Please model this.
Amino acid sequence: MTATDQLAPYIDTWDNLAVSRSEPYCAPGWMLPWWEHAAPAGAQLRVVVVTDKDRLVGVAPLFVERTAIAFNRYRILGAGLSGSVNLLAEPGTEAEVGAAFAAALATVEPRAHVLLFEGLPTGSPWPRIIGSSSGAGRGIATVEYSAAEPIATLLGLSFDEWFADKSHHFRQQMRRRRRGLEKAGGAFDSVADFSDEEVER
Model:
C-alpha cells in the first residue's frame, strides 16, 4: 500500500497486533504520525499487509528511499528515531507471513535492492526468515543491524535518587529536553515491578 488512507481498514487490527506482541513502536499510532511528520524527504510509503480470510495476520510497515548510488533502500517506519521497530505477525505465523513479505518485496516498485533492518531486538527472526525465503528473489539484500535498547540500570535506587546522582549538566539537559517534548504534546509514564522476563526483553 502506498497511501495512508488505504490502511484505514487495518488500523485497529494492526494496533491490536502490536499490543499483543508488546511492540509499542510498531503500532500505527506511532508509525503513521512519524511518517507524516518525520519521514525523510523524498521517501515513499510501502506497507505490506498479509491477511487470512480478511483477518490481518502480518504487517511490514516500510518506506523506500533512493540512495546517492541509485539503490532503492527499504526501511521500517520509524527507523532512526524509535528504539525498536519491527515487522509484525501473529505468533506462530512468522514463517508463512515472512514468505509473503518476501514475495511482495520481489515484485514491489520501485525495485527493492536493499531491505534494511535497524534497531531490531536481538534475536529477531525477520532477517533470517525473509533472507532465506524463495520469494526474496530479484537480488534483494537483507541487512541486519541490532542495537541495544536505551536502558538505565538504577541499581536498587528510585528514579529520583538515580537522577539526583547525575551531573548538573546531565540533569539540566534532560529537564530541557523533557520540557520540549511536553510542549510538543509528549507525555511520560512510569512502569514499576518488571519481571525478569520483561527486563530481558
Summary: The first helix runs from residue 11 to 20. Confidence is low (pLDDT under 50) at residues 194-201.
